Amino acid sequence: MRRSLRLAAQYVLVVVAAFVLNFGLPRLAPGDPADYLAPPDSAGVLTEDERRDILSRYELDGSTGEQFGAYVRNLGRGDLGVSIRTGEPVRDVVLDRLGWTLLLVGTAVVLATAIGVTLGFAGGWRRGSKRDIGLLTTVLAVDALPAFFVGLMLLLVFSVELDWFPVYGAISPGELGSWAAMRDAATRLVLPVATLTLAGAGSTFLVARSAMVTELQEDYVFMARAKGLTERAVRRHARRNALLPVSTAALLGFSTLISAATVVESIFSYPGLGSLAFDSVVARDYPVLQAVFVLLALIAIAANLLNDLLYPVFDPRVRAAGSAA
Amino acid sequence: MRTRHVSAAVLLGALALVGVTSSGPVGAQDEPVVVTIGLHAAEKNLNPFISPQALPITHDFTMLVYDTLFWSQARLDPEPWLATGAEPSDDFRSWTVSLREDVTWHDGEEFTADDVAFTFEYFADGEKAGRYGHHVWEHPQFESAEVVDPLTVTLNFVEPVPSFELLPGGDLPIIPEHIWSGVVDPEADATGLQVGTGPFRMVEYVPDTSYRLEANEDYFFGAPTVDVLEMPVVRDAQAAFAGLQSGDLDFVTRNLPAPLVEGVEGNDQLDIIEGTRFESVYLTFNTRKPVLNDPIVRQAISRSLDLDTIVELVEGGLARPGNDTWTHPDSPWAHPEGGHDFDVDAANAMLDDAGYARGGDGTRVAPDGTPLAFTLLANSFAPPQLRSAELVAEQAAAIGVAITVESLDPAAITAARRPPAPGESPPVDMFIAVFESHAHADPDHLYFFFHSPGQGVGAVFSGIADPELDAIMEESLATPPEDRLPQMEEAQERFAEVVPAVTLYYPDGRWAYNVDTYDGWISDPGHGVFTKRSFLADYANVEGGDAAGDEEAAPTDGDEEAAPTDGADETAAPVAAGGDDGPSAGLVIAIVAGLMAVAAAVALKGPKRNRAGTVED
Fold first, then answer.
1. How many cross-chain Cβ pairs, A to B, lie less than 8 Å apart?
2. I want to staple B153 with a disulfide (CB 3.0 to 4.6 A). Which of B113, B268, B331, B478 is the partner?
3. Quick one: how far is CA B465 from the chain centroid?
4. Would you call A21 an interface residue with chain B, using a CB distance cutoff of 8 Å?
């Protein structure tokens, strides 16, 4: 009981810190929304009066303290404001984008985990074998390629040369909801997901491989072999235990891949949170940035929490240690 | 079976992907001409009261939906458009404009002189934002409008406006009174579909993502040559040109980069059309900073720059080196001589004579001890500008001027250009940016940008305050266009002497397009090719312009008129009416739920057997 109270307190503290940081970070960048609205290319047609108008329109003309007060009040009311860049309600924009990002990142996490675990266990099982070295080299090499490069290569090969997939967007404009539209959305998902999967599979592979290697050095494996269990049975035992660190890596990888998605979404013009965050940083669109960062922080925190809660379920040893203390 | 769960998940995922790829394009019936244009940036909803975001295409994009009285500001003899003509009073302070008959707004309302009077009054009132208004409330200053009859209106100005047909006549979008008359805060509407008189109607706008425009069949110049303009925003340049090569896009609003020209020339489906938007890449000095406030220093830096080399290295030779006289050589106002004075020895001699001696590290020092060391800001999102900045720094080093390049995003550069308090000098030393046609075609452009602080935006721009330049430009404001050239030339000569800015080069306009889908593109000087005339039968490069439009009372969406294009067939673009995002959320949830189920299966299978397996532990 006391443990869960402490855990809850910790999480509340982290969430509050995220909310405060979230207000401050966007404002640390030089320039403000009015500067974006008068980019250098437009010869800076904004006069001082127009600047003031724009800032007061978005309640950005007060002191930092006043702005923070408004931020907290609005957050409390669930009012996220209006995007300075597009004029849409922030809540709608963010929720709309969140769906696409969850689809993209969710699919990529599952695939990256599946591929990483399969290959990682295969390599770790026979550490130092030709297969292991081959896998390790290949995975490390692929992992070292930056996501934008991989994305562009996939684009050139599969969209330009083979013409299998469209190059931009999440869905064709126009009518949605039909079977054809779903297929269209799925088709447009392939390349971004492939890019993100390649970006994420490397770390899962390394975690899975080293977990397998570690397990194989445990006494129970030695014991099992001494008992004459088949290799297949030994492998099954080892694999179960090795899955523990992998589940943690997969949950935490979710937030890592959301940041990696920024690049991928930009290349494929995918309307997710990452590209939204990027465009909003450029525009100093504080209301959207605040909402996106809060959401990303909450997702990361939730993944952590889930991990904290699931670990004792997965691993009886942790449960035993917890109740003993 | 249990041991195979991970591999099964992989297989499942792979199958899902493979299953998906086998699907072909959405079926299409009797094809209207749909041209898909990749926009390099989003432009909000084309509301003319919102600051431009997708320069340099903002004006031409907006003008697909709206019209001006004349077209266009980029020529000395603009063509009557919504107007049929305009007569000035003797003192050029009032203009009587006669209007075209039988023009309707996209919503069916009739266009009349009231709309024109309203437009001028509305833009002039309250210093509204956006790039258009200041040509009505700043210069020239609008005073009043009188509607003479439904097709005639007299517009009065506070000062003489000899170039009315160009500005604001060729620039100000005419807006419908019945829509805007009740709007107090025009900037607030950033998502609504705009209603204009232009060749295309806005039918769908997904913020940040896409636009869909459909032909205005009743357009007064005849139905446009294209039925639908589908315009997704494709920000990534590589992706955009990949889309062009794969056939997903028919046109890209970005200039074709020099390295891609060869590849496009080798592609049968693609063609290149050249034109100009009067773009220029320029370097501006903060002329109020110590040392940089000395014209000798600015002139010396300008002379140290080998612009031919910059053009060669940055644009692969596909650009023209800048003129010291600033104005784009294709602008009607350009100085006929132009040219750039590149002379490192002369630059060194100038600085030696003025007492800027070289210090120990080779960097010159002003007589008061200030080193000639500056920071040059360049847009981190514009590789050609960054590359130019690096070359400028390299070349200026030869005359003992140390320049450090700093790459920032546009908002940070604008912030550095802003005076900390009114009247003070902004922190920036110099920056590189781009101008498009409006800045070169506007007969008042030198006045707006380089008049001394306090008028126009001169203060924001370079801070230059040169009484001689001021005097020439003030005189030219009140001179009719035909007598104005000598004054403009004089102003440009003075500009080259005081050097508030240096034009590094004028990029050539080069755009690639898919010939099979639409071949009608034309070059409209000052506008490039992404402009309304490319879609009008009287101008576009199409066979047999059919200006004899059909008179349907209510044009329906799926009309089957075959627009005249050269052998256009098999445009495989899916055509559908607008809809909203409801079902996409369902799709997302369904797929995510499916994935979660797979993930849960993988996760849960492990620990269950784990308990059994670790008994020995």
1. 304
2. B113
3. 29
4. no
